Amino acid sequence: MTIIQITLISVSMQIVVLAVLLTLAVKLIGESGRSLTAVFLSFSFALWLLTDLYWLIYDLMRPESRMPFAANEIGEAAQFLVTAAAINSSVKRRTRLPMSYLAGTFLFSVSNVVLWILWSGEIVQDIIAGAVFSWLFYSIVRSLRWSQAFGKPEWIVLGVLCTAIIVCQGLTFIVPENAENIPALCAYALLIAGIVFFAYKLISAYRGNLPYAQVFLSFALVTWMIMAKYMSGGNWYNLFLTLETLGMPLWYLSVRKVVKAE
Amino acid sequence: MIFSENILICIGLPLLLTVFLVRDNARRLVVFFLIGMAACLLGAYVSGFIDVAFGYGTEDTAIFISPVVEETMKFLPLLFYALMFAPDDDRLFTAAVGVGAGFASFENVCSMLTIGTESLGFLLIRGLAVGVMHIVSICALALGLVLARHYKISGVSTILGALSVSMLFHGIYNLLASESGIISAIGFCLPLITAVLVFLAYRKLQTE
User: Fold this and answer.
1) Which of B75, B128, B134 lies closest to B101 in space, CA to CA?
2) What chain B residue is nearest to A67 in terms of C-alpha separation?
3) Which one of A62, A111, A227, B46 is least enclosed by Cβ atoms within 10 Å?
């Protein structure tokens, strides 16, 4: 089986999961007395589903041709925006991020955008998508801080992890071609370490019965997987895509817990 | 080649006269029907410009760029109406349906004149599919505006989200309809199936 065939199967599976989650999320709107978070969650799932469908149909109809600028790129950016809105609607008290958090989030976002541009060469699209992705990062960091999901040492670990990933990915452009695999493998190992870190914190929040921390950590976990997917190619891309599909129900489950309690 | 402006004038004039003879919701519907037709023509101009300026090619422009341009063109008058006149939800939906129906009707007339009017079956299927697709997508836009107004916060996210849902839905329809055989049949059925599903979900939410 080729890599693209595995991708097609993974995306098809994701579409099925999203269709089920969308149905459940729409039901949740009624069950929760039209909670804003449930509305935005449904919206986010709908956009994700349509974006995936568009990509799948295109790839089946025109295999091995690069998609020109199309509606799915706008859909992807809108999905990040709506996901950020879902997160922000759960934050009950507006708080400002301290300068160090703000600078860290900004630098990490900009580094991601620079790497995307270096990989794809699509400057305008990547800057627009990157700006929205940065807003999503900011919303996640703010929500995690508000819910006190992390202590100070954990924020430092996350900061070191993010810096190390960007350094490793950056090194792949600098080192000679025959040594390119070493920083790339290190970056993948760090991306997986990030997934383990967020998953561990999510389980801790679940055990500690912290519903808001669960919501924000589930969003952070899947967003980390999306970021990892964008940073990878080939089988690594498929791995993160599959993990992302497995993580999606966590959004619904954690949001359901919070909106039903409200 | 057809002269779309002439067609717009010929269809638009009787409707324009009607505006002075009807009142309230009927007048609103006719006005927005006319606006929908004008938006369709303007959308064609913009798509044509993008085709020439960026060298996409006629087919790729129709499949990939038109959904983005057309949904934006339909959305702008609706956004203007919502922001300037702050209508209630019912009036906003009447305006949305008017724009969608006008847009779809004008597109159908131009497409019929271009491809010929021999096969009634095909014209019925295409006409119904395009009509439902434009109305469903603009209803999604109107819903986005209603949500943005009711929930106040995150208005930009809601509006852009709704606009993207319409663009993606339209884009998927265009992608499927551009092929022949079973794929285009799925494309033509898609708007109707979606309309039924959305209607059922809406009714269920209302009863809850």
Assistant:
1) B134
2) B64
3) A62
